[in-house]
Amino acid sequence: MGGESEATAAGAQRGALGGLVGRILAAARYGPRGVVLRVSAMAVAAVGVAWIHRVNDPGVLCPLRALTGIPCPLCGGTTVFIELGSGRPVAALLANPVALTGAAGLALAPLGLGRRWWALAPSTRTWVLGIALVGSELWQLARFGLLRV
After folding, report:
1. 50 and 117 Cβ atoms separated by less than 8 Å
2. Of residues 137 and 1, which shows the higher confidence score?
């Protein structure tokens, strides 16, 4: 099969590192260990992004906001992780509650929340996501002073 061994062609992991990564990814799918692994990965990423932002502020990352000045519904998503990585959870919540809620949902999915989400009817998931995005956009417009409340 093109120079590959039979074990590799059958989908087996290569080497010790590949086996370790495979076991970690499998463990991150279910149960409390999965939550710990996901939260740990998110925390490392958040601290890393906060450090990079502190050292070299890249400015506005949202292409829509950079071009038009109007924030998208997901504006503030990066800011959520920067603020969490900097140890400011309230500022993270105020930056984008929808992104923070989504990150929490992703972190807690191994406890059964993921199965509950996918058990919903597709139309229900569409409505929930649509309402969340509209609410997030209104939040962003108010946060940037483009919508008076």
Report:
1. no
2. 137
DSSP SS3 for 41: helix
Quote the CA–CA distance of 50 and 87 in Å, as a whole number: 9
Instruction: Convert the pLDDT of each residue in 64-96 to its tens digit.
Output: 888 888 888 888 888 888 888 889 999 999 999
Q: How far apart are CA 104 and CA 81, in angstroms?
A: 12
* Contact between 65 and 71 (Cβ < 8 Å): yes
Residue 69 burial class via C-beta count within 10 angstroms: exposed 0-12, middle 13-18, buried 19 and up: exposed
Rounded to two decimals, the pTM is: 0.70
Contact assessment for residue 82 and residue 49, using Cβ atoms and an 8 Å cutoff: yes
Q: How far apart are CA 91 and CA 26, in angstroms?
A: 33
- Rounded to an integer, what distance in angstroms lies between the CA atom of residue 76 and that of residue 110? 26
**What residues contact 38, with CB distance under 8 A and at least 6 apart?**
28, 106, 107, 109, 110
